[in-house]
Queue: 4 jobs
Job 1
Amino acid sequence: MDLAPDRARLALDNVPLNVALLDETGTIRASNASWKRFGRANDIQTAPDAVGENYLEITRRADDRYADAAADGIEAVLSGERVTFSLEYPCHSPDERRWFLMHAGGVTADDTRYAIVAHQNITERREAEREARREHERLAHLVDRLSGLVRDVTDELLGASTREAVERILCRRLVETDAYDAAWVGRTTLGTDRLAVTAVAGDAFVDRTDEASVIELRDGHPLADVANGRTPLDVRARDAGGSNARWQTVTTSLLDSEATTEAVAEALPAGGLVAVAIGTDETCYGVLVAYAAEGTLPADPELAVLESIGATAGAVVDAIERRRWLVDDGVTELGVTIADPAFVFVRLADAIAGELTYLGATYRADGSLLAFVAADADESAMTDAIGPVESIASVTSLGGGDEARFQLRLTETDLVDALGDRGGTIRRLVATPDRATVTIDVAPGSPPRAVHDVLTARYDAVDVRHFHERTSPATRSTFVQTLTDQLTERQREAIQTAYLAGFYDEPRAATGDDLAESMDISRATFHQHRRAAERTLLGALFEDTHTDAPDRT
C-alpha cells in the first residue's frame, strides 16, 4: 500500500490522536507525528516512528489484561472477524494518572487487510467520571446521615417538655454526628435585639452562665439576619489547613456586638460555621450555631436540612410556650412604644399636631371597624387630618367635653385582627406626633412573644417598656364570653358604641342622636338595641339563672 500524499500526511500529523497503520501481520507501516511524540515522551525503546516494529508483539510483551485484550481485538480486526474494536485502558506515568481509548478499524487495499489504530487521551473524562462517582457516593452517605439525623432529632424533640431540653438536644445531636466540632444556641429575648447563650455542646469556648455570653444584634451582625430575617448563615474559612480546635477566636468574634461576616471568616482557623433560626414563620425563638470541621463542611442539602431541624425545634418550642401560658390563667400586660411614623395613630397625631387617645374599637355588623378616639381638635381639623391617611375612610364627631371624641371608620383591620388572633387586645393607646405608647392585654393561653411579633412585623422602632402579669381574670373572661354570647350583633354594637363614645359619661359626651347617626340607624332603633343590651347585662349581674342566648341571625 502506497503512503498517503503530502496533504493527507499533513492532515494526519495534525490530528490530536496517536495514529498508526498496521499490516496483516501487525507490523507498523506508518504513524503520525502524535504517535512519535508520545513514544519519545514516554521513553519507548523503538524507532522514533516505530515503523517496522511489530505492534502486536510489543503489546503482548506488556503482559497485562489490558494489553492482551488490545492485541486480541486488533488481531480480530486484521482477520476480518470484527470491523472495529475499542478499549479503554490505564497508562499511568510516574507523574500522573492517565487513561486512553484505543480504537482499531479495518480497511482492505490491494487485497491486503490493514488496521488503523488510534489512541486518544481520555484522562480528563475519566477523572470527571471518577469525581462524579465520588460525589454520588458522598451525597448518598450525606442523605443517609441526614435522614438519620432528622429522624433522631425529630423523635427526641417531640419528647421534650421544656425549652431548655429542646436547646440541649439540638446541640448534643449535632456534635454526635462527628460532622460538627461544637454547637450552641443563642436564645432571643422579647423586645430586645439580644441573644443569650443557653445551651452548648463540644468545645465552643462559650459559657452559658457567663454574662459576657450575651450578644447585642446590631445591624450588620452576622447573626442578626438569622434571627430577624430567618436567613441561614454559612461562613467558610479564608484558608484551609488550620487547627479545628481553635474555635475560641470564632466565638470571641461572634460575641462581639460589632462583629461582621468578614471578621468571622478571618477568625475561622479552618472549616466553617453555619447558623439557622429556631422558630416558626412568625416567631424566632433563637439561633443554632454549629462549627464544622475541615473536610465536613455542609453542602446546600445539609444546610436545608438544618433549616428544617430549626423549624421543627421552633414548632416544638412554640407548643411548649403555649402550654405554659395555658396553665397560667392570668392576663399578661405588654407595654410598648411605637416610634414609626407609618403607624396610623402616630400619623393622625402628627396631622393634628397634638395628643390623641385611643378609646377602643368595635366591629359593625357589615364587618367594618370603628375606632373611637379623643383628641384636642375640632371636627374640621380632624377631617383635614385624615385626608392623607388612606386607612381611615371617614370621621364622625361625637361631641365631648374637654376633649372632643371622634369615630373613625378604618379600612384596614389587619393589625386588630392579627392581635386578636393571638389573644392581644389594645387596652390603652396614647399617640403623639413622634410616638405611640401602647398597653396590650394578652389573654391566658397566648404567648406575649406572638403579640410582640405582630407589631415588629408591621412597624419599625417597636420597643418593649414593660412585660408582666397584671391580673388573674379567669372568671371575668368566662363572664364576658357568656354575656357576649347572649347579645345580638346590633345590641353589642349599640352598647359598645355608646360606651366608647361617652354616652354614659357625666356630662354625656355623645347623645343618642349622635350615635344613631354614626350607626346609620334611627334614634328609636338605636335606643331599642341599647336598652335590650342593658337588660341582658343587668340580668347577667343580678339573676341567678340566665336565659338562653337569643337567635343572632
Job 2
Amino acid sequence: MSLSVIPRVGLRRQWRRGGSPRPEVNSRGLGLGVTMEPGPSVLEVLLDAAPEWRDAEGLSRPKATGSYEALCGLWRPAEAEGGGLCFTGRCRDAGRFCRRTVAAPAGEFTDFVWETTEHLQTSSNSGRLLAVSNHNDLGIYEFHVQDGICDVTNTHSCSEEALRKLVENKNLSLSSSLTMKILSFKSSTSFILLDNCTLLHLSWLEGASEADILDGFKLLLPLEAAERIADGQICQEMLFLLDSAGWIYICDTVDGKQLGKVNLALCRPGVFEEAGDPCDLTCLSRLELSPDLDVAVAVNPFNCAICVSLNNFFREHPDHLQRTSEGSNDESLRAPAGIDEDDLASSVYSDKVLNLPFQTDRSWTARLGAFYNKTKVPLAEKFLTRFSTPWYHNLSSRNSNVASCYTSSCKSNTSGQKGDVNSQESKWHRILQLQGFKESMSIETVSVSGFSVLFTLVAPDSGALTIAFWDLETEEVTYHHIDGHSLPVEGGGEDELCLFLTDAGLSMVVFGFSQEDLLNRLMIYGKAGIVDSLCHRNNWNRCSIPIHALEAGLENRQLDTVDFFPEEQRNLLFYAPAGFFKAGNSGAALTSWAQLKNVEEIKPALDLLCSAIKEHDSETQSRQFSEQLLTLTMTFSTNKCRNF
C-alpha cells in the first residue's frame, strides 16, 4: 500500500475542521487518573504487513521520507561490533518492498537526516540522507529502488580532519573533543552545529565527492550557555537552541546574531526548582517546534513537557524579542570571500539577504513545488484566526515574505477581533506530566503541530509503547497503549503521522477518527483500491461508499472510485426491519421489500451519474470520460435489472 496519500487525508487537522465530534478523553490536566483502555476516538490501523516491516531486529530510531515511501534507521546487528544504516524502500513498479543495510566506514552511525527539497519530489523511488558517525565523519547516502532491488551509494563524505580544515579557513577554532549535530539537509546544503556554538553551512555539489563550505561563524550566545545546549532545530532559516537551564535562544542563520529568547522560568514564577521535581524546568533535554513557529515544546528526562505559544509569549514579553526594521540596508550584498560574484552560490546568498522571490531552478517541477508550498501555508488555522501577524514578522527582512503570506490569508478572519492577554486563548504556556503505562517508560518521539502534540513513550525492557495525544485547545490528553515490542517511526514533513513497527508490520494510530471517517477520507483523497486493501488487511467489513465520495470521484475523474461504488452496491445486503415477519409477511414480500429498498438507495447515485454523463458529454475534451462513465453505468444497470 502506498503511504503517500495518507498525509493528504489531514489526520491531525480533523478536530480543527469542526466536521466531526470531539473524541472521548481518557485523562486531562496533569495526567492524573489515567485510563489506558482506548476509547472509540482511537483507531489502530495496520498499513502494510510486508516482511520488511515485520523484521525490526537491531533497528533503532527509524525515520520516514516526506512521501512515506521509504524508511531508514540506525542498524546494529546482534553480537557484532559497529553499526550502519538500514534502508527499506517500496518499488511502485514492482509493487513490493526491499531492504538494504550499509555499514559505517568506521565505528557506527549516531544520527542522520533525510534531504528535503523546495520542489516536489520527482521520484518516490530515490532519496538522499546525511549521516554522522561516532567519529564525527559525515557522509551522504543515496538510495534507489528499481525492480524490487534497493541500491545504496555513498556519494559524498567528509572526515573530521577535513571538516576542521574547512573551519580553519573561516578563522574559527574547535575544541579537541568535538561535538556535532546535523540541523538540516535541504537542496544539497546542510547546517551543522559544532561544539554547540559554531554554525557551519555546507554545500554538497553534484559531481564533487567532498563538502564545500558556504559560511561559518560563532553564535552570539550568553557566557557558558554553549555548555548547556541540549538540543537545536532550524525552522524558516532561524536556529532555535534549547538551554537545559530553561532558555530557548533564537539565532539568525545568516550571521549568528541572537534574534530573541524565551525564558521558560516565567512559566512557574516564584517556584524554587527542587531536586527530583518531575516538572523541573532546569534540566530540559529536547526541543520541538511546529512548522508555523507558533508552538514550541520542551521536555525533561522525567516525562514532563512544557508547551509555549511563541506568539503569545512575545506579546506579553516584547523585550525578549530583538526588533529589526524591515528592508534594513545594514547587511552587505557582497558575496562571501572566495566565491565568484557570477557563481550560483553568490546568487543564493543575495537571495537570502534580499528575500527576493527568485528561484535558480526554473524547471516546471520547481514551479509546481513553489505553488504547492503556498497551499501548505494556511495549515496553522489557529494561528491565522487569532493574530494578524506572526511573532517573527519584524525580525528580519528575509522573513517578510513568509509573514506577509500569513497576514494576507488571515485578515478577513481577524477583522474586529482583539486578543485578550488575560483570556484562556492568550495563555502562552502549559505544563503536562505524562503518564506511561509503565514507570520505566521515557519519551522517544515528539511531534508538534499548531493545535496538538503527539508523544510516544517507550519501555526500554519490553519495547511497549504508550502514545499520548495532547489537544492544546482543551488541554485534554488521550492515551493509547500498545503491548509487545514496538518501534516508533519519525515522520518526514509537516503532516507527521503516528507510525510504528510491530511484529504485524507497519501500523498507524489516529485520534479523533472512526473507521468510517478514515475510509471516507481515503476514498476522497486516495483510491478505491487503497480502501479495499485496507479493509482486507485489518479484517474490516467493506463499507458502502457515501454519496459525497462518489461526487468527489466524479469531480476528480477518479474512475476507480466511480467503479467501486456500483461494486459495493451490487454486494450490499439489506435486512428486514424489526417486526417484519411478525406481521405475517412472507419471504416473497421480503424479497420485494429488499428490491424496493435497493432501488431507493441507488436512485440518487444513478441520477448523479446521469447528470455527470450529460455534463461531460457537452465538452469535447471530456467526451472520452463521459463515454467511460456511460459504460460503467449501463453495465451496472443491466446487472441490476437481471437480478430483479
Job 3
Amino acid sequence: MSEPEAPAAAASDAPPIQELPGFERLLADLSAGFINLPTSRIDAAISDALRRIVGLLDVDRANLIGFESETGAAQVTHSWSVPGVRAVVPRSVLEDFPWVMRRLQSGRPVVFSQLDELPPEAAADAASFRRVGAKSSLTMPMAVGGRIVGAIALGCLRHERAWPQDVFARAQTLADVFANALAHKSARERLEEGTARLDAIVCSAMDAIIAVDGDHRVVLFNAAAERMFGYPASRAIGAPLDHFIPDRFRSRHGTYVAHFVQTGETSRRMGMQTALSALRADGTEFPIEASISRATIAGQPLLTVILRDITERESAAREIDQALRFEQLLTNLSAGLLRAPVVDLERVVPEALRAIGEFLGVDRVVLWRFAEGEDSLMLMHWWAGAEAPEPPALVSQADFPWLSERLLRGEIVQLASLDEWPTEAAAERSVSERLGLQSLLSVPLRVDGSVAAVLSLAVLGSGRSWSEALIPRIRLIGETLANLLERDRKSRDLVAAQTEAAQFRERLAHLVRVHTMGEMSAALAHELNQPLVAIENYALAARQRIADAATDPRKIDELLIKVVAQATRAGDVVKRLRAMVKKHGIEAKEVDLEGAIRECVEMVKVDCELRSVRLDLDLSGQLPTVVADEIQIQQVLLNLLRNALDAMEAPCPHGDRVLRIGTAVTAPEEITVCVADRGVGIADSDLDSVFEPFFSTKSTGLGIGLSISRKIIEAHGGTLRAQANPGGGAVFRFTLPVATKRD
C-alpha cells in the first residue's frame, strides 16, 4: 500500500507509450465536453468516459463514487466493466470499505497492486475486495473547492498490475475532470430545479404575474394572468403594458412606470398594494390590486407586476357595507316602531316601508296579509314611487297560484327578471308583464309561528338581483311590522270584545238591580210612606195654626221647614231608586267608597228595622278614592247586604242579628270592604260554588247576583271572596285598587 506519491513500478508493468496520446485526447475531450453539456446528457457522457478509461488503462472496471456531505454516505453512482466482469450497480459502499472511505474523505488516495499491501486496519476492506475479486486498485479522491465530493476507482479483477507515476498523475487529473463535471452537473441541476420551481410557482400562482422589460413590453405572462385578462400568453408577450390598462389611465400610468424604472422610487400608486383598474380582452374594466418591483438583469431593468382581481372582494365589501347600513336603518325603524303608540302605526308603518324602498332603490314595497282561509292576500300597508301603480286591495290566490303556494310553504321567491319565472308560473308572468314588474322579492312572514303575511318588493322597468345578505334582514323588519300590526289588530279586537262584554254585563246587572229593587219594594214603600205621612201631619198642623189668628208665624214656618225636610227625604228615596233601576253607560270615575257605602246603608236601613237586624258600621273614615263605576259598586254592596239580610231571616242560631260593614286599607294600593252576617252561613263545599252562575242557596234566588258581582269587581281590578264567619254566619270581602295619583 502506498501514499499519494506515485508508486515505483517495473518497466514491464507500465502502459505502452502509445497509450499516452490517447489518454491525453480523452482528457481533452472530457474537459471540453463537460463544459456545455446539458444536464440530461452528463450521466451518459460519464459512463462513456469510464468506458474509454477502462480501455486505455487496461483495467477491468472503473467506478465513480459520490459522497454525501451531510450524512457522510458513500455510493457508487457510475460504473463500467469489461466484458466478462460483472458491473457494479449503484449502491452504498461505506459499510464494505470503511477504511478506504475514511482515507478518501480525508483527501488521500488508496493504491495497491496486491491485496497484501493493505494495512491491518483495512482487514474489513481487504475481505470485501477479495469477495468482489479485486486484485489491484487505484482510487483517487475528487475535490471541488477544497471539499471532497467523491472518488474515481480503477480496478483489476483478472490480474494484478502496478500503477506507474504517469498513470497516477493522469488519474489525479482524471479525478479533477470528473469532479468538475459532477460539480457542473450539480450546479446545473440546482439551477434547473430552481428554474422549474420558479416556473411552477409563477404558473400555479393565484395572482397574475407579469414581467415587463425596460421598453414596457411584456416578457412573462403567467396562467393566472391569462385567466384574468382573457389573453393567451403567446399573444400577450411582446405587447406593451398599456394594452391592459384603460385609455384614461394610460398616460399617467406610463409616467409612473418610467419614473419607477429610472429611480426605483415608488409612489402611492405603484410599489404598494393599491386599487386600480385593468382592461380585459373583451373591453370590460375590472378593479385590481397591484404591487410592482424592479430588478436589473444583464444591465437591463426588469419590472415584475403582481396583480389581484378584487372584483369579488369589492362586491362583497359593497354588500357588507350595504348590509351594515341597512342594519342601521332597520335598527332605527325597529326602535321607532316599538316606541310608537299603537294609534301611530297607521302613520309609522308606511313611513318604514318608504324608508326601505328608498334605501334599496325599489319602486314599490307592499305588506300583505293572508285572509282567513288563505285564499287571498289582503293589502295592509304599501309605499310606491312616483311611477309605480297602486297595489290592489285584494289579490286572489287564483291569480298567483304558483307564488301563493310557495309563500304559504314559507319559501322566499326572488326573481331578477321576467325570464326567471318558471313555465308553471305563466299566470304570474302574465300579470307581471301587464303591470310592468321586472324584478320581484316576496318574503313570507311568520306571526305566532305560521305564515300570515308577505313583504313584497318590486322593481319596474329593469331587472335587478337581490342580495342574499339583505334577505334575512328584510324578513326581520317585515315580521316586526307584521307582528306589530297583528298585535294592534288583536288589541283592537280585544278592546271591542271587552267593551261588548261590559255592555252585556251591564245589561244583566241592570236586570239584577231591577229584580233587587222588586224584592225590596215592601221596605222601600215603608221607607217612602214614613216621610209622606209626616208631610201630611205637618201640613194639617200648619193649616190649623193658620186658622188661629193668634198663632205665632214662626211656629208655622217651623212646620213648613219640616214639611220640606220630609219631602227631601222622600225625594232621596226615589232618587236612589231611580239610580239603581235606570240603564246607564259604564262610567269610571274617582269615587268616595265610604260615601257610596253610606248611601247603600240608607237603602237597607228600613229593611233592617223591619227584620230586627242591627247595622254595625266600622268605616275607616280616611280611605283614599277609587276609580270605579259608582252604580256598579253600589249594586255589589246592595247585593251583599240583601244576601246577608236574607241569611238572617230565620231565627238566628248564633244570637243577635248583626250586619257588620267594614273598610280598611289592606295594602299600599288596595282597599278591602267586608260584609259579615250572623246568619245560617255557607257550607265549606259551597264557598266557591256560590259565585257560579245560577247557583243559589235560596229557594227564590236567581243565582246570578254573586256571579255578576264577582265579574264587576274583577273588571275593576279587584277580587271578591267568601268565607265562614268565626262567630257564625258568612263573610264576603272584596278589594278595589286605589286611584293612581296623577302629577
Job 4
Amino acid sequence: MKKQELLKIMDGELMEKLFSFCYARTSDSQEARELCSDIVFELMKAANTEGDIGNLYGFLWKVARNTYADFSDKKSRNSDRTYHGDPEELFSVLANPDGGDDSRELLDAVYRQIAFLTRAYREVMILFYLDGLPVAEIAGRQNTSEGAIRERLSSARKRIRSEVEKMAESSQRPVVLDQIDYWIMGNGNPLWGDPRKLCTRQLPKHLVWLCRKKSVSAAEAAEELHVPTVYVEEELEILRRGENGQYGLLRWLDSGNKAATGKGAGGTRAPGRYAINFLLFDTKEMEQLRAAYREQIPAFCRVVRDYVETHKEEYMAFPYLNRRKDWNLILWQQMHAIFHVFEDCVEGILAGKYFAGVDTGEDDRRPFSVFGHVREGENFGGGLDGMSGENICGCARVTVFNITNRWVQPHLWAGHDMANDAALQLAIRAVEGLGVEELSETGKEHAARAIECGYLYREGDRLYTKILVCGAGDEDRLFDIANGLAHGYLEESAQNVAEKVAGCIRRFVPEHLLGEWKYANWLAAQPVLDALLDNLVAAKVLLPPENGVGAEGCWMNVEK
C-alpha cells in the first residue's frame, strides 16, 4: 500500500492496539496517552511522504518502537531536572514550610493515605487540597456533578480520618512481598499475544493470586498487599489488557460475579472488580488432580506392555525407508502418542459425560491460551519438537521430529537451521546408503559426528540412516496402531480418572473458567508419560540411549 493511505487504516481497533503497546511500556495512563499521541503524529507525518509499504504491521510497529525509544530518551533527559526525593516529604514542606515535626508527620500520614484511595477519590482529593481547585471546576474536569464531587471528598476524608492513626505505624513498614512463582504453559500461537510476559515481577504475581478464588477491587488489593492503590490500579489494568489488549491474565467481573461482556480485554470502562482469567492451581490442588491419574498408572502400564508386544509384527511391518528397522527405536517413537491416547480418552469422557453443557467458545476462538500452577520442585513430562525444510539434499521437503524427556536428550529444537546442519544432511543423504569414499575429509568428520549422535550407522564401506525415516504419504498413519488403544483397552481406567478429575475441576475452577476444563486435564496427566517410560525401561521393554543421546526418539519424514 501507499504511505498516503495510512490515514485510512487508523481506526479504533488500531488505536486500541497502539494504546496497549504504550500502556505496557509506561508508568501510567497519562504517559501512555502521550506516547500514543507521539506515535500517531509520526504515522501522520509518514502519510505525507512518498513511497510504498510492503508489510503494513511491520511498518506500524517499527514506527511505534522507534518513537518509544525517542520517548524514553527524552524522559531520561528530563529526569535530570526532576526532583528525585520522597514526594511526600516534598509535599509536607510545601504545605507547611514552617511547621514542626508533628505536623510534618501528620501530613506524611495523610499523603500516604491519599495514595491508597482509588483513582476517582484520589484525583478529587489532589485537585481540591493540593491543586486548590474549586468544586465546580473539578466537576467540570471529571464530567460529573458538583454533588458527586462533594460526596467523593466527604467519603475520602472519612477514609483518611479513620486510617491515619493506623498509618502512623504502617507507613514505617516496608512493602516486602513473599516470593511466589508459577509454572504457566501455553497452547496455540503465542505471537498473537502472550500475557505471561507481563507477570514476571512479584507485584503482578501477587495480584493474580489475590484474584484466583474471588474477584477483588483495586482498593481491596491495595489494602491486602499494603501497596498504594495508584500502583495497584495501573498493574491490574496491565494484567487485564495483556500484551495485545485482548487477552490478559485477569478479566473484569460484573456485580453479579459473572464475566463482564462488551469490549472484553480492550474495553475502556472497568466494572471495578478483577478476577483471574486463566486456570491456576495451588500445590494441594495439583496433588489431587494428579492423584486421579497416578492411581491408574500401574494398570495403564500393564495394558501398554501387553499391547505393544501383541502388535509388534504390525509395528515392524510399517513401511519405514530404513535399511534396518529397529524395534527399540519404533517404541521410543510411539511413546508420546500412546500417552496422549490415554489423556484423550479421559478428555472424551469429560467432554461427553461431565462438561457437555459447558460453553468452550471463548477458548476455542482464542489463538492462544495459558494455564498453570504454583511452581514446586517436581517437573514432569517432556517435549516433542518438529521442524521442516524444503529443497534439502535432493528432497522436496524434509520434516524432522525429536522428543525430549528424562531418558532422551533432544538433537534439535524448533527453529533449528537444517540447511546448515551437516550431520543431519548426511542422515538425509544416507537413507538408501552413502559410500564412505564419496565423502571429502571434512565430510568424513561430519559423518563421524553423525554416527556418534545416532543419526547414522556404518555397514562395511557404506553409511546408512539410523533414525527412523518415513516416506511421503505414510506419515499420516504413523500412529494408527497406537491410536487403537482407544478402542476398549483403556476404558475402565479412563472412566475412573475422568470421574475424579471432573470432581476436582468442579471444586477448584471458578465458574467463569469452566470452559477451559481441558487444560486442567492436561495438567493432571503430567506424571503419566514419565511413569510410563520409567516402567518400560525398568522392564527392559525400552532401552534408553547411553548418556541420553542417540537415535531414540528422533525420526524424519521425507518427500522426494
